[in-house]
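Listing S7. Sequence submitted for prediction.
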Amino acid sequence: MPPMETPKLRVFVHENQTFTSFNALSLPATIPPIPRPWNPNLESNSSSDNIKDALTTQWAYETCPWFPLVASNPHFDGAVFSCLNHSLYSLPIESTLDGRYILRGDVRREWQSLEQKLLWCSQRLAVNMHFPWYGQAPRPPKDYGYLRPQVDAKLAKKVAMRSCDAFLGISALCTYFIMAHRYRPHNDSPTWTSLLINDPQCPILSAWVMELSRTFVGDLTDVVPRNGMIINGAYSLAWDTDVIMFEHFKVPIWVYWPPDIPGNKTWKRYIPSAEDLAGATCATSASPNLQNNDTWGVQADSHFWLSQSNDMWDPEPSQPAPLSTQPQQDLSRFPLPHKNSGQRHGEDWSAFFARRALQNAKKEEKETPSQ
């Protein structure tokens, strides 16, 4: 058998910041602000508690080893996840006896059943498996409010969409333990599917488990892209051995090298040589080489993550792209946008969602979920 080829270290420079990677061809579409370091005395870091942030590539946090495994292009279909296949417009909302609004009962029960199964899977698979001492599980979908009535239908949709997003968090935790079982199998230990099917306390139907293994939760091949993570090369991680596991399953890993600060020896193999730096790929925000790991806007209109929270209509009507001094784009090859979608003719998804994100930020400043 020929020896395995050593992967080539790639170097990227973005806004005078240096990043290296063995398995990513480009940088993430968006690089979040550098977080403050882990504080072992306070047992805390600056990881976000907002599930929306976890849906894009984040920095490596001591408390969130599951962040890198969030699927960046999930398909909500099949027997397991089809109940989540809703957009903001298709989410069914019903009124309650006291005049408030909530996700329709049949969908609510399907979501609750799926949530309980995924939480049980991660709990069962975690037995006797490594998990960081300071690790924290993602907040379950029910914490985002889909089981609670809201003051109006618009807010009920917003809350349901946030809850729907949260399924990707608990799914990523399941993936973490499935990956650990595959990467670090114990002698004569059963497969992760057998553990769930044959559990003496609460066995799960084999057909459902087999279906789960074919979804973005159990499929560990590179057919399922994941968000990956950015490591600050100045600091180590309590779960740094997981990085090798992530690389084995082709989860994108980037290491950032702060200027004038010696790198931590944990990441020494990521340190770029002078030759690597000379051949670095320079990336800017407008560069086509930037990797799009942003889950917003990757899928077709039928999937929920295309619709940002609380956007039942766009305050800006659909209209042609503004005139510019550049040669005009041939719009004949673009289909007309859907009515009331807010998309402009000839506007690609990245421009549309960048504009939509600004609108959503302004709206969310003025809205507060009901208690």
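Caption to Listing S7: primary sequence and predicted structure tokens for the chain studied. The longest strand covers residues 10-14. The chain has a mean pLDDT of 80.
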